[in-house]
């Protein structure tokens, strides 16, 4: 091995779990090396071009890397397919480049589900080793430093806050939000302006949102979206202490005789092996891949992989349970000005409901159970994908004038509004990551196998929430409204796999996200989470990574 | 299930399994348009899956897995060195495209969309070429001509529009024939809504008809999806 690089701290991955650590350590003067498998794209590269997504330009290609996904068939057997669906963003900043940025906090009860709601048979739920109060200052820090816009309003499930409001005012709102607020008030609900990881005004060298209406899965052209790259890594690198090495596919962490990580090996863009040395290592490359890297890193003190002496690495993986629903408004049934308003593109819907974060309803359960969040959103426009789906009429292919009229009506005669339901994906013995002994990636490394079993309780909760969303859509005057519950794993928002806890017998990481039996290795992506909260976990992963960064700083100062 | 609920990103290829199939993505539990690429299924796996009726929601809008349905024996693996359009096959495809998207005085026709030029450009895209789409489309021209000659005694391009529609309906009765038309529609509809930089939808003629607002910045020459790898 010819090339040797040396850093104080080496971070594998550059997404939301990585950015805070790189930013804080570099700011404190330590030499930080970030190893990212993908390339470095910037604002100027993010055209609003549907082809970029259709051709997976910013994601790993199936032919290069895959996962094996096993799902229950419902009859006791399991399906097994290879898939590329879990690659969220093979670029600097990772999947956060392509998120919508719904930045809800978790609530105090999410940190102690067992204490609050009791155990559920078949689920591996545990209380967290930290409480909400310990994370609260870091939520505040993310809101200020990474940039969160919105407005805090009083509601029955509002979490405690050390600041009265969010530091950035809400992004521009679509007229449908008013319609939503009126309907919710009539239903005695509490419509919430959504906290977004999107800037409503310029900040720290980033521009405000440009409201092109092409958010979500499209990369952000203005830098308003709070990706780990735009919000943190750009700054860290500009400061001079942080180096991001791109096209560096880390495949192994090497450990020494006392079990500490001595170096990380990666394949560079030409497939050559490079070794990086550092005092402290951080793994943050998305829960599935972080578990895979630990499992692949066999050493004298870690014969089953790092942190895996109890066989727990990869276990207790979770996705976001829930579903989606739609409300379709027929525009020709509305007053002209109202139809025009609904067709506006650019501003955000930006509404959420958390009235059922705890469900206290005898029709579902004798005692209160954990519920979830309904986010009311727009899908990023993808006209080609939408159009292509319209060519089927039942079982038959449609063409000619009937097809043209169907397409025209879809685009011009109605407007589809959407909601998304988030609830806990209960951890269970059938949802975990392991190494696939048959399938390898283009570097010849065993791929991760994801077994994605779900707990039936999740379906019940999700259905309850989807039904509430449909009621809201109807109250808004939707001509058609419906919703579906999903039990398939989400391709994004997967977390867990290296659960944190105080007991090395039952957890992979300690309360500071350091691997129990590997003193200089931390895992700072979503892997630590015993449960994901009934929201997108992104904000919490950011906050926790800042918390861990402070712990690493303490440790560094003593080295 | 309502027709609307099968829209766009969450339909399945023909049959629908409502629960447990839609994939979610990015910040939003968005039922992703799980195209063959997006889901990462290779074509064989995709066919296994659709065959097993464990259908992913989202495949409705995906590119059809064409010739493999007939068994791989008569399926070329890639377009390397395969034949290209000649004036005759081009005329046939253009005539089919005009049936698929006619000039009916409401919205652009296939011809106005530059659908054929777009198709011939798209078929040379590396992924599409690897899928063997061009060979399959050329093979389909042969089937269509055979059918046309057998039932109406003449080449497809010399039939009246009504006769052409009849032959296309006959062809669509077989799985392969339907896949062929579906594949042509897949590319044709791309030429309706993709950015004009890709050769279809000239001056945004398709967008204007559909009252669709493109985002900004729009892709430019030298910065299309092919320029990022």
Give structural notes:
The complex is a heterodimer of chains A (559) and B (229). In chain A, the strands form six sheets. In chain A, strands 1, 2, 6, 7, 8, 9 and 23 form a seven-stranded mixed sheet that branches. In chain A, strands 5-12-15-18-11-21 form a six-stranded antiparallel sheet. The longest helix of chain A is centred in the C-terminal third of the chain and has 21 residues. Chain A has 559 residues and is α+β, with helices and mostly antiparallel strands. Chain A has a single domain, classed as 3-Layer(bba) Sandwich (FAD/NAD(P)-binding domain). The model of chain A has no long low-confidence stretch (mean pLDDT 96). Chain A has twelve helices and 23 strands. In chain B, 41% of the residues lie in helices and 0% in strands. Chain B is mainly α and 229 residues long. Chain B contains nine helices and no strands. In chain B, helix 4 packs across helix 8 and helix 6 crosses helix 7. Chain B starts with 35 loop residues before the first helix and ends in a 20-residue tail after the last helix. The longest helix of chain B has 20 residues. Chain B folds into two domains: 62 residues, no CATH class; 158 residues, no CATH class. The chains are: A alpha+beta (559), B mainly alpha (229). Chains A and B meet through helix 2, strand 4, strand 11, helix 9 and strand 17 of A and helix 1 and helix 8 of B.
Poorly predicted runs of 5 or more residues of chain B:
1-58, 67-77
Radius of gyration of chain A (CA) equals 23 Å
Fraction in helix of chain A: 10-25%
**How does the overall form of chain A come out from the CA principal axes?**
globular
The 3D shape of chain B can be described as globular
Low-confidence stretches of chain A: none
Level-2 CATH architecture of chain A: 3-Layer(bba) Sandwich
The strand count of chain A comes to 23
Q: Can you tell me the CATH topology of chain A?
A: FAD/NAD(P)-binding domain
């Amino acid at each position: 091995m010819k090339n040797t690089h040396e850093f104080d701290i080496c971070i594998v991955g550059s997404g939301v779990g990585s950015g805070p650590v790189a930013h804080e350590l570099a700011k404190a003067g330590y030499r930080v090396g970030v190893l990212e498998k993908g390339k470095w794209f910037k604002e100027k590269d993010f055209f609003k071009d549907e082809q970029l997504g259709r051709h997976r330009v910013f994601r790993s290609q199936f032919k290069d890397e895959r996962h094996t996904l096993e799902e229950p068939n419902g009859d006791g057997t399991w399906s097994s397919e290879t898939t590329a669906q879990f690659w969220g963003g093979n670029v600097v900043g990772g999947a956060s480049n392509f998120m919508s940025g719904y930045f809800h906090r978790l609530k105090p009860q999410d940190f102690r589900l067992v204490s609050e709601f009791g155990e559920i048979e078949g689920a591996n739920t545990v209380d967290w080793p930290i409480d909400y109060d310990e994370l609260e200052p870091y939520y505040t820090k993310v809101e200020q430093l990474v940039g969160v816009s919105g407005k805090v309003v009083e509601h029955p499930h509002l979490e405690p806050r050390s600041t009265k409001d969010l530091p950035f005012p809400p992004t521009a709102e679509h007229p449908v939000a008013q319609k939503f607020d009126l309907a919710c008030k009539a239903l005695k609900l509490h419509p919430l302006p959504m906290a977004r990881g999107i800037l409503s005004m310029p900040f720290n060298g980033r521009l405000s949102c440009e409201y092109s209406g092409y958010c979500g899965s499209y990369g952000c052209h203005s830098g308003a979206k709070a990706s780990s790259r735009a919000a943190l890594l750009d700054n860290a690198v500009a400061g001079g202490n942080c180096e991001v090495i791109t096209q560096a596919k880390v495949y192994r962490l090497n450990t020494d005789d006392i079990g500490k990580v001595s170096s990380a090996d990666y394949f560079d863009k030409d497939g050559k092996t490079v070794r990086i040395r550092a005092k402290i290592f951080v793994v943050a490359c998305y829960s599935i891949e972080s578990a895979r890297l630990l499992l692949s890193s066999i050493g004298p003190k870690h014969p089953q992989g790092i942190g895996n002496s109890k066989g727990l690495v990869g276990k207790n993986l979770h996705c976001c349970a829930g579903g989606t629903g739609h409300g379709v408004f027929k525009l020709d049934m509305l007053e002209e000005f109202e139809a025009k308003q609904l067709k506006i593109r650019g501003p955000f819907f930006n509404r959420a409901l958390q009235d059922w974060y705890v469900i206290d309803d005898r029709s579902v359960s004798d005692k209160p159970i954990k519920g979830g969040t309904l986010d009311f959103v727009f899908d990023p426009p993808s006209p080609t994908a939408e159009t292509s789906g319209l060519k089927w009429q039942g079982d038959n292919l449609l063409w000619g004038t009937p097809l043209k009229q169907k397409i025209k009506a879809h685009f011009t005669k109605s407007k589809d509004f959407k909601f998304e339901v988030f609830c806990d994906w209960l951890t269970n013995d059938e949802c975990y990551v392991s190494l696939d002994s048959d399938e390898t990636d283009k570097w010849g490394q065993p791929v991760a196998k994801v077994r994605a079993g779900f707990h039936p309780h999740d379906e019940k909760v999700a259905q309850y929430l989807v039904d509430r969303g449909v009621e809201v859509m109807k109250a808004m005057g939707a001509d058609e409204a419906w919703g579906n519950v999903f039990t398939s794993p989400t391709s994004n928002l997967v977390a867990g796999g290296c659960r944190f806890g105080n007991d090395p017998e039952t957890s992979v990481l300690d309360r500071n996200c350091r691997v129990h039996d590997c003193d200089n290795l931390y895992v700072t992506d979503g892997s630590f989470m015993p449960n994901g909260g009934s929201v997108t976990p992104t904000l919490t992963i950011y906050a926790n990574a800042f918390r861990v960064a402070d712990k690493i700083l303490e440790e560094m100062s003593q080295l | 299930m309502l027709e609307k609920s099968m829209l766009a990103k969450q339909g399945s290829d023909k049959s629908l399994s409502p629960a447990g199939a839609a994939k979610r993505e990015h910040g939003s539990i968005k039922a992703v348009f799980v195209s063959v690429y997006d889901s990462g299924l290779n074509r064989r796996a995709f066919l296994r899956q659709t065959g097993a009726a464990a259908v992913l929601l989202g495949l409705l809008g995906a590119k059809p897995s064409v010739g493999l349905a007939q068994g791989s024996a008569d399926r070329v693996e890639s377009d390397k060195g395969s034949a290209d359009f000649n004036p005759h096959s081009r005329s046939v495809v253009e005539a089919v495209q005009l049936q698929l998207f006619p000039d009916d005085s409401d919205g652009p026709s296939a011809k106005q969309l530059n659908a054929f030029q777009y198709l011939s450009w798209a078929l040379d895209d590396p992924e599409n070429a690897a899928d063997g789409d061009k060979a399959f489309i050329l093979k389909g021209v042969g089937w269509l001509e055979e059918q046309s000659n057998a039932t109406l005694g003449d080449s497809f391009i010399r039939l009246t529009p009504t006769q052409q529609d009849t032959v296309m309906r006959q062809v669509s009765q077989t799985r392969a024939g339907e896949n062929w038309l579906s594949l042509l529609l897949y590319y044709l509809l791309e030429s309706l809504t993709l950015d004009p930089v890709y050769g279809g939808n000239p001056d945004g003629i398709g967008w204007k008809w559909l009252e669709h607002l493109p985002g900004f910045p729009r892709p430019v020459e030298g910065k299309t999806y092919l320029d990022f790898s």
